[in-house]
Amino acid sequence: MTPQALIFDVFGTCVDWRSSVAREVGAVLPRVDATAFATLWRAEYDPAMARIRDGGRGYVPLDDLHRENLHKVAGDLGVTAPDSLSHAWEKLDPWPDVVPGLLALKTRHIIAPCSNGSIALMTRLAKHAALPWDCILGADIAQDYKPKPGVYRASCAALRLPPEAVMMVAAHNDDLHAARAAGLQTAFVPRPTEHGERQTTDLVPDADWDVIAPDFLDLARQLAP
Amino acid sequence: MTPQALIFDVFGTCVDWRSSVAREVGAVLPRVDATAFATLWRAEYDPAMARIRDGGRGYVPLDDLHRENLHKVAGDLGVTAPDSLSHAWEKLDPWPDVVPGLLALKTRHIIAPCSNGSIALMTRLAKHAALPWDCILGADIAQDYKPKPGVYRASCAALRLPPEAVMMVAAHNDDLHAARAAGLQTAFVPRPTEHGERQTTDLVPDADWDVIAPDFLDLARQLAP
């Protein structure tokens, strides 16, 4: 069945967070290793969400977690960072195929992020990166974080579509396993340099995803009638 | 203060619901007066939301209220309408200035609907009418209906903006009174034929709104630096 909507992981799948955040860090904190800082900052992402997923903390938008984690990483490195550096996550550059691929997909499908980023963060990032979303779905809609099944299901429900009419697109196998368990179709698009040249994870699909494509333009070609 | 975001009423302000719904009704129910049917259908809109605003019924998306009201109006007229006719509200045509005006405003501001329509309805309507929204705000975000102040405030909060950094744009004075009471800036754009050639309401502003503009292109010019 051709999906009526495609929903996308964003950090890593649509945008190159590592080099973009490093650029923003470097502009504000010239004395730190900016790429190492970006990697350490991102490493705090999942533990911060885990407490919320587990119910140990109420839902807090990712913007606030990013700010808290910024100060933790800066403190660990013995530097002081301004709150405003948190907005680095709104200034991430897309992989080269993303904007033309999304424009091609948008002609036949609803396209929306299903990210752990908030509506505010995804809206500003879309303006920076020219991502032509039809609407913003994901964590804010569900008031919870992926890979909890409710996040995928709430995104489908917001479109009034059953999960089987929606395809999750991600560069991360674990995101797709969770989406499939929630009843969605799945598409894997690898991003082999998300974590740098020596990346070892998510280089290949680890299951029989419904579509496997080298980039978003090829994904659009595979879904065309 | 220049608003960082502009949020818009949609039915009447951005799109000509009356003639568009009449066109869809006429295609499916050739024996009824299609314009009269559209007007009667719309007349059920506010009473249906009122029960939800007052707490007499939990939040139900407008798509469902439209379907319920469709069958009520059809029944009153002694005809049977298919559920699918409810999707007429996803096929409304924009006033001629809306798309170019929104594109001009989008270069400097976040633009989003703050409508009583659901995310699903606003997303499909945006695809039909080529409305270039940055995200979809409004009733679904707040799980309540305008003019309750929480709907305007939840839309600002989703963008992580204080109400005074957001401007509500509407063709209806009552919508702007409610937005102003919630702390937002206000812009009035009259739509003197929303209810047909003999319209008597909302022809002129009834308060000193922050901006009064004949159309969205003029609104963009007035907000330009």
Detailed description of the structure:
The first copy, chain A, is α/β, with parallel strands linked by helices and about 220 residues long. Chain A has two domains: about 5-15 and about 90-225, Rossmann fold, CATH 3.40.50.1000; about 20-90, Orthogonal Bundle (DNA polymerase, domain 1), CATH 1.10.150. Chain A contains ten helices and six strands; from the N terminus they run E-H-H-H-H-H-E-H-E-H-H-E-H-E-E-H. Chain A has helices at about 15-30, 35-45, 45-55, 60-75, 100-105, 120-130, 140, 150-160, 175-180, 215-225, and strands at about 5-10, 110-115, 135-140, 165-170, 185-190, 210. The first copy, chain A, has a six-stranded parallel β-sheet with strand order 3-2-1-4-5-6. In chain A, strand 4, helix 9 and strand 5 (about 185-190) form a beta-alpha-beta unit. In chain A, helix 1 packs across helix 2 and helix 5 runs parallel beside helix 10. The longest helix of chain A has 15 residues, at about 60-75. Chain A is globular, with a radius of gyration of 17 Å. The mean pLDDT of chain A is about 100. The interface between A and B is medium-sized, with 23 and 23 residues. Chains A, B: InterPro entries: 2-HAD, HAD-like_sf, HAD-SF_hydro_IA, HAD_sf, PGP-like_dom2, S-2-haloacid_dehalogenase. Chains A, B: It catalyses: an (S)-2-haloacid + H2O = a (2R)-2-hydroxycarboxylate + a halide anion + H(+).
